[in-house]
Amino acid sequence: MKKRIRNFLMDIVEEELNDEKGRGCMTANAALEHASQDEKVAEIVSQNLNYLEVALYGVFRSAQENDEIPSHKNARALARFVLNTVQGLRVLSKGCLGKNRRQILIDVVDVTIEAI
């Protein structure tokens, strides 16, 4: 399970690093730029974030059922933590444009996996 989560996060890192036009993630951009001013945008952002949270929650619940992670860990909180990491990677990527950008993002992924 940790390997799947790491691969998922690394896919996001690669997506961000290869975004030549700098468009970024529509959900992150909408959340940061428009959601506080437009109720419809806020609703769509919320739905997108909820969709990912539910999917991650399913992964963590399954991992608990298969004894891959302890059952005392809060699967919902872990899902929200990884969701936060996803969005954080997307935002951090836009602010880190130096040659160590890749390593900064990988460091976030590594610490996230350790925390799970």
SSE map:
Blueprint lengths: L1 H16 L8 H8 L5 H27 L9 H21 L5 H15 L1
Helix pairs in contact: 1-4, 1-5, 2-3, 3-4, 4-5
Number of strands: 0
What structural category arises from helix and sheet content? Answer: mainly alpha
Q: Please, how many helices?
A: 5
Mean pLDDT: 89
Low-confidence stretches: none
The CATH architecture can be named as Orthogonal Bundle
* CATH hierarchy class name: Mainly Alpha
CATH superfamily: Tetracycline Repressor, domain 2
How would you explain this protein's 3D organization?
With about 120 residues, this protein is mainly α. It has one domain: Orthogonal Bundle (Tetracycline Repressor, domain 2). The protein is about 75% helix and about 0% strand. The chain is built from five helices and no strands. Helix 1 (about 1-15) packs parallel to helix 4 (about 75-95), helix 1 (about 1-15) packs antiparallel against helix 5 (about 100-115) and helix 4 runs antiparallel to helix 5 (about 100-115). It is flat. About 20% of the residues are buried. The model has no long low-confidence stretch (mean pLDDT about 90).
